[in-house]
Amino acid sequence: DDVLGTAPGNAEAIALDARISLLERDYTRAEQSFQRVLAIDPRNAEALVGIGDVRRARGDDDAARDAYRQALALEPGSRDIEQRLAAPPPRKWRLDIGSEVSDLTDGLGDWTDSSTGLAYRLTPQTTISGHTRMATRYGRTDVQIDGRIDQAFSATVSAYVLAAATPDADFLARYSVGAGASWRIMAPAKALGPFSLNIDARYDNFATAEVTTISPWVQVYVLDGRLGLSARWVHAADDIGTRADGYVLRADVAVIPSVNVFGGYADAPEISDGSLVPTRTIFAGISWDVTDPLTLRGSLAHEQRPTFDRTTFGLGLTARF
Known about the structure:
Radius of gyration: 24 Å
Structural class: alpha+beta
Number of strands: 14
Largest sheet: 14 strands, antiparallel, barrel
Number of domains: 2
CATH superfamily of the largest domain: monomeric porin ompg
Strand content: over 45%
């Protein structure tokens, strides 16, 4: 700002201001500054590239490519511009499919839980999604439908809201509402970071009970982002004054760029048919990016409950298009 104040016509200073504004997600100011550079120097390819970057950040890939092509015409053979043009269009859709089978001890049979979700990125900051879940317990089946909106307010702050309903519910919540937020308080810095503070809250209305859950948690990455560690506190309370607290510890490891594994331990209340059930769980899983748009997942968990043990095996996939 000081340089711009003393030399308002300095194209380099204006371009620097534009780049800083782009990093801060102030896209309006960034594009205005790049346009000012073009007004001073109509053959400034860097300004055209900047305009393309702003448009791509806003989610308008076609307009971004138009700006890149204009820049390439001014600087033929530029590898930097050619790489931007070669980048595939952003995939705005995401399909998630998963299924779990649980084996219960004491001859209680199996539980099954399957889900399908579809998400669409309206803008780089806003994503809407919907899911269906079909769960079977002791021969009874419930189907739950939910919707969710995720919003990034800045490079460091994001939040979400959700709502779910289960028509003719037998054991799942008749309806639920929830919200959460995340604040990245430390950006990646060499071996440490990012570090984030998070919170989730949810209200579940069952046929015989109402349960509110609040869960603050922290997450930090170390070893250049290859190891992620998180710790979550879980507080749950129902409408008759029953309260329960617990925790969840988890580690995520990037074995290679395409393969990630995770594992953890939880000693926290599980909500089962409106009741708060003390549960200890050991869990682990793996995800494999088979291709850029396709990820396969597998997981295994063992729970110890007061009346039975439960072992769950899950498989899933994510497709982006």
